[in-house]
Amino acid sequence: MFPTPYGSPDGLFHRLRHAAEERWDAYCWHPFVQGLADGTLPLAAFRRYLVQDWLFLIHFARAKALAAFKAESLDALRGKANALNALLAEMNMHLAYCAEWGMSEADVLATTEAPETVAYTRWVLDRGMAGDILDLEVALAPCTVGYGEVARRIAEHPRRRREGNPYESWIAAYSSPEYQALARGAAERLDALGVSHGGEARFRTLAATFAEAARLEAAFWQMGLDAAR
Ligand SMILES: Cc1ncc(C[n+]2csc(CCO)c2C)c(N)n1
Q: Which residues are in the Thiaminase-2/PQQC domain (predicted)?
């Protein structure tokens, strides 16, 4: 399995990732990701993905707000406020892309959500509402930590294209030390919650949640690819 720098080797994040190995690989090294790495991803696929991702992020922000509500401490509440801000910044990057394609924020907002977008976002919110902070963080982790790993896999790809790659700024955002630190922090937080909130006893349920999130992430990439067929 691709080596991960996130979380402790005996922590909850490593255990969840290992238990979901097949789905995790299918997500982090999806053909969409390989197309970003070598620059061959059709623009139609990226556009479809990015517009839907902006709609995805609105609901993801709501899930972060739910995590703030469910936060186990004042420190965790502050952490969630910061995460919400990072999310809003990421949404601006999306709008910059959309502006290049002649799409305003209003145009993006008026786009119908794809079934894959609805499925993933509302499922995360449901896991969070039905469960506690650990259930919610496990549902969110493949998103935050996974994109960090996606960027690392792209960086190590033998056919990685840098010169003239149309997706270079997307790759750069997730390869940045700032984002890599965020991904590391999310894995460490999961490890800590695993200890404080009974991760061992709840492992089967948490592993099912983690694997389902990885599957929904892969389906999200596929939704982008399908637009270019
Ligand atoms: C489908 C999909 N999955 C993951 C991300 C990555 N992501 C979502 S929120 C966020 C900020 C930190 O939590 C990051 C990096 C995405 N954009 N779209």
A: 19-226
Residue 88 has pLDDT above 90, yes or no: no
| Active site residue ranges | 143, 217
In sequence order, the 6+-apart residues with CB closer than 8 A to the CB of 141 are: 13, 16, 186, 187, 190, 210, 213
Q: Whose CA is nearest to atom 4 of ligand 1?
A: 143
Write down all domains in the chain, each with its CATH number in brackets: 12-226 (1.20.910.10)
Q: Phi and psi for 160 in degrees, rounded to 5?
A: -55, 125
In the reported structure, the alpha carbon of residue 6 is separated from the centroid of ligand 1 by a whole-number distance in angstroms of: 16
d(CA 144, CA 208): 18
137 Cα distance to chain centroid? 12
Cβ(127)–Cβ(64) below 8 Å: no
pTM for this prediction: 0.96
The pLDDT tens digits for 112-140 are 999 999 999 999 999 999 999 999 999 99
